[in-house]
Amino acid sequence: MKKKMATLLAGFLALGSFASAGTAAEREDYGKPSELFTESSTITLSGDAWKAPAGISSEDKVWAYLDSVKDSLKVNAQDDIRNQFVIQEQQTNSATGTTHYRLTQTISGIPVYGADQTLHVDKDGNVTALLGSVVQTVYQTYPLTLSKASLLSEKDAILAADKDAALEYGPLGEDELTPKADLYYFFVDGVPKLAYKTEVNVLEPEPLRIRYFISAEDGSVLFKYNILENVTGTGTGVLGDTKTFETRLSGSTYQLYDSTRGKGIVTYTAKNKTSLPGTLLTSTTNVWTDRAGVDAHAYAEKVYDYYLSHFGRKSLDGSGLQIKSTVHYSSSYNNAFWNGSQIVYGDGDGVTFRALSGDLDVVGHELTHGVTEHTANLEYYGEPGALNESFSDIIGNSIEADGWLIGDDVYTPGVTGDALRSLANPTLYGQPDKYANRYTGSSDNGGVHTNSGINNKAFYLAVQGGTFNGVTITGIGREAAVQIYYNALVHYLTTSSNFSAARAAVIQSAIELYGSGSAQVTAVTKAYTAVGVN
User: Fold this and answer.
1) Is 204 a catalytic residue?
2) Active-site residue, selected from the candidate residues 100, 120, 328, 449
3) Which of 162, 377, 395, 436 is packed most tightly, with the most Cβ within 10 A?
């Protein structure tokens, strides 16, 4: 029996699930990962804006609201709502007075994977929106009696993931991040199972960042996929331009270390090997000849400054997280990636790519993956993964804001005018520009790079306007649009948001920033209608 997911947004109750094509449905070694990766219909019920009872605290308003919609959410009506959800985070937007909450549904104190929500309380203390997913009627349908005492340990779950990865790829090198395992209820073929989410993150025998869901009952692999965030459609080399940037003097040696921004921006070289972070780049004259290092360092500073000046955000985590970059990774490596703790650049082979660190779009794209990981944490799979890629494209491209192409400076350096992606016309480079034409296969983690073109096109239409698919939009300009999309990313989207959820999040973000009857709300609404996302 399939479960439905519930989504509440701005006075509407939407019942449905996050839609995405997934490889698990096509593999024999483990079942469908969860209802987060299946298709189901969406139902909307209209409702009036909720008014907060007088004299209660901000947090109590959250519980009061959830309790008032308990029947619609179809959670356990007999149990206190506080036993079924937990508040993970609370942030107040000083510009609008809106308080944004992140919540997670729980069963017997254990979180349900993907069943997370964002709830929003305006400056007057009234709930304006609840977005996300709620697993319905799970308590009534499945008796959950498994004792925690009988479960595998976290250590055993980590070992099971390592063993599986080693069987597929060979002996594993040192971990890039300290392994951990978190216990969830995870849906497999519509049935909730206790599972540990863990990760294999190594550079040897090749760069891997594989997310695992390990059964807490028997240690089997319920689902897995490689979430290494690659540059696809972007890359660059040094183009001979002169840049100025902050360095640090240590004794008589200058270092590519900027201590003026957050907890630092630091740039290393792997010296064409695969150990990270490598060796800190240094110079005796403060005149730098390592072009890949100069670009990586200077562009990381520009990305930091953009987030701070445009959004008031201090680094990737909002708290000044140190930004580490490594250039000259491996040999002729045609890639760049964010590995969860730093950004890594190959030099390219000179034919497909130049050195990938020199393009501001690429650096902005990869570092935005870090922002996403610290906020919406969009699953790097299927539709959530396509949104993950799209938001990196949108913000990465908006930093320089000199056009709509991605990767045109670095991709195929011998071919003039070539690029990897276009926000203005995704079909130029093999991407769909409307939802009906989305890729539904299992390659590329369910089309995370291909289907990003749909959301990219919606952003472009909101910015530029025009008529597309019979819908005419009046553009609102890039600055207003990027503010709306950033606010949606960090406050409204959740782990499993699909394209429909992104539409709702972006519209609600526009309402928060510009008002319900604004031109901005009209523009983003029509933009999503134009690309067929409803």
Assistant:
1) no
2) 449
3) 395
